[in-house]
Structures are given as C-alpha cells and as structure tokens.
Amino acid sequence: MIRLLAITALLAGLWGCSHAPEASPPGYLLPSATQAAHSPLTIKVRLANYLNRGGIVMQLSDSEIQVARHHRWAEPLTTQLQRALEASLPHADEKTLIVELTRFQGLQGKDRDSAVITGRWALTGNNGDATQGRIQWEAALDNGGYANLVRTLDQGWQAVAKDIATTMD
Fold first, then answer.
1. DSSP label at 26?
2. Is residue 102 within 8 Å of residue 48, measured between CB atoms?
3. Chain segment 108-138, per-residue pLDDT in tens
4. Does domain 23-168 bear CATH number 1.20.1050.10?
5. Domain ranges, ordered by start, for the chain
6. How far is the C-alpha of 11 from the C-alpha of 165, rounded, in Å?
7. pTM of the complete model
8. CB atoms within 10 A of CB 51
9. Which residues fall within 8 angstroms of residue 149, CB to CB, at 6 or more apart?
C-alpha cells in the first residue's frame, strides 16, 4: 500500500512538472515608437482591415497573407505608427495629417524576403490647402525572423516620415 502511494505521488509530481505554463510569445514594438512626443499636428493613421488584427503580417504570394498568431504587436499598430510620426515630423500648427496604409508587412519572395509599406497620405491646413502623396517603400531583409522584420519596417516608417516632412517645410 505504501509502495502504491509512493508511485502515485511520484507520477503526480512528474505530471505537474510536465505541464508547466508555456512561456508567452514576444510582443513587438517599433523602436521609433518608444519615444514620447506631443505635436500640435493632428495625426490619424488608418490601416487596411487585415493589418488591424494584432499579428505581424507576412505576404506569402500575390493573393495569400498570413497574420501571425504568436508574433503580435505589443500595442495597437496604429498607436505605434502615430507616435513614431509625432516624434519624427516637424511641428505644424493647425494641420491634419491622415495616413492610410494598405500594406505594412513582410513579403516572402522567391529570391529574397523584404519589408513593404504602401499607402497614401494627405496633409490639410486650417485654410483648406492640401498636399497629398503616395507611400511606396520596400527593402530587403538581411536576416530572417520577426524581430528583424519589425526593425526593417521601422526603418521604412522613418523613411516615410522623412518624405512627408520634406513636403511640410
């Protein structure tokens, strides 16, 4: 009887150890979005619906995308993109910048993988003057992995901000 209790206790202990809680997957932030900034410029970022699902997006073919389930943005992507723009753009009183992104994702290619950002932006002043532009940015990924994709997308977002800033001067 004691032997049976010892075996039961041993098996219960082994079962408990084998069911340790799984480590949570990482959350990702754009490095340029970690700086707090405030701008009198009103910035609104809108994303294509599939980009708003919380996971990092990889385009697998011309018609297939994959939204990662375990590699997710640590906070809403729109919030990060807006904060990064606030930190990067010159202060412009009483103007509104609207950015609409159709792609902010990785792209799996035959020869190489890349990061892609596409969309458009419009800057409107209080007097109704408007300036518009297209966003078309792509860069090869040097290494694989989601962390590298996020860093490369962040570099692209900084390039987009720089392009917008040149039209604001």
1. P
2. yes
3. 988 889 999 999 999 998 888 899 999 999 9
4. no
5. 23-168
6. 65
7. 0.84
8. 23
9. 56, 58, 106, 115, 141
